[in-house]
Amino acid sequence: MADPYVSRKDAAASYRPYNQLMSPGLQRAREPFRVRNAVTGTLLLAFAAGVWAYSVSAVKQDVFDDIDEEARQLARERERSLEEREAERKVAESAAKIESAPAAAVVQQAGVPPSMAGRGLLAPLLARRFPGLLDPATKTLVWGAPSVDSIGKLGDGRRHQS
Question: Which pTM value belongs to this model?
Fold first, then answer.
C-alpha cells in the first residue's frame, strides 16, 4: 500500500517553489486575464500621461516679459486702496465730530418690518407647508446649525456637550 501522505518536500515544491512567486494554481487562474489586464493597464497609463501632458502644456509660459508690468500694476492698485482707506478714515473722523449736532428723529411705520433680503426659497415654502420639518429656533433645514452670518472659529460652539 502506498503512503497516503505527500512528502513535505513535494508539497513545498508544488505550492510555492520560490518565496516571491505565485503558486501554479494561482498562475493557471490568472492566465485568461493577462492580456485584458495588460491592455487595461496600458490604456490607463496612456490616459494619465495624456492628462499630465495636457496640464503641463496648458500652463506653459515661454515669455515672461509681462510679469514686471503685472507687478507694477499690483503695486499701483495697492497704493490706490491705501489712499481710499485713508480717505474713508478721514470721513469717519469728520462724521464723529459732526455727530455732536442733534440728529433728526427717524420715523418708521409700525406695520412694516425692516427691509432685509430673504434667504433662499425652500425654507419659507417648507415653513408654511411642513412647519415641523424646520429647526424651530433658526428656521433652517439643518437642525442645530450655526448661523452663517457669524461663522466664528472651529473650536467655538457646542463641541464638548455631554
Answer: 0.31
